[in-house]
């Protein structure tokens, strides 16, 4: 059975979902997913602790089991996102190149928008080819805040 628990963070209320083995999803608490127990498990507590460390600039990588659900292409994109270093950004075109199809920037954008585990799978590190911030499930102000946290703490 899947479990969810909500936490107040510097970017708003976040729900963390786990399946007993891995983190499967996070959401911005806009809509309660169906068929999920509200239960603060050990894994969810650990994920929250690591997120709080990330928000305070003390954590640059996460040490959590992740199990996002998606297509084979989405999985490739999300794996590529995990390779973007803390404090750095890639364009959609860069990610398309990394997954083996330079012409798939638009498809990469769609896969990025379907990332069910934002922050832990750092879709906020993907920007437009012109260097502009584009699209983020939590809004561009949240994306900007996450990138700002990383920029400020990149060399710590």
UniProtKB/TrEMBL annotation:
Pfam families referenced in this protein's UniProt entry, alphabetically: DNA_binding_1, Methyltransf_1N
UniProt protein name: Methylated-DNA--protein-cysteine methyltransferase
One Gene Ontology cellular component: cytoplasm
Methylated-DNA-[protein]-cysteine S-methyltransferase DNA binding domain: residues covered: 72-151
Note: This enzyme catalyzes only one turnover and therefore is not strictly catalytic. According to one definition, an enzyme is a biocatalyst that acts repeatedly and over many reaction cycles.
GO MF annotation, one: methylated-DNA-[protein]-cysteine S-methyltransferase activity
Main location: cytoplasm
Keyword terms of this UniProt record: Cytoplasm, DNA damage, DNA repair, Methyltransferase, Transferase
Protein source organism: Clostridium estertheticum subsp. estertheticum
């Amino acid at each position: 059975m899947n479990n969810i628990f909500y936490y107040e963070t510097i970017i708003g209320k976040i729900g963390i979902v786990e399946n007993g083995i891995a983190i499967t999803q996070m959401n911005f608490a806009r809509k309660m997913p169906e068929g999920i127990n509200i239960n603060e498990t050990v894994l969810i507590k650990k994920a929250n602790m690591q997120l709080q460390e990330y928000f305070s600039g003390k954590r640059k990588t996460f040490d959590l089991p992740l199990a996002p659900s998606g297509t084979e292409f989405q999985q490739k994109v999300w794996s590529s996102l995990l390779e973007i270093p803390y404090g750095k950004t890639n364009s959609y075109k860069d990610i398309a190149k990394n997954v083996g199809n330079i012409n798939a920037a638009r498809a990469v954008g769609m896969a990025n928008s379907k990332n069910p585990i934002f922050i832990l799978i750092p879709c906020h590190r993907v920007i437009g080819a012109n260097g502009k911030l584009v699209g983020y499930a939590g809004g561009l102000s949240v994306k900007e805040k996450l990138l700002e946290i990383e920029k400020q703490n990149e060399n710590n």
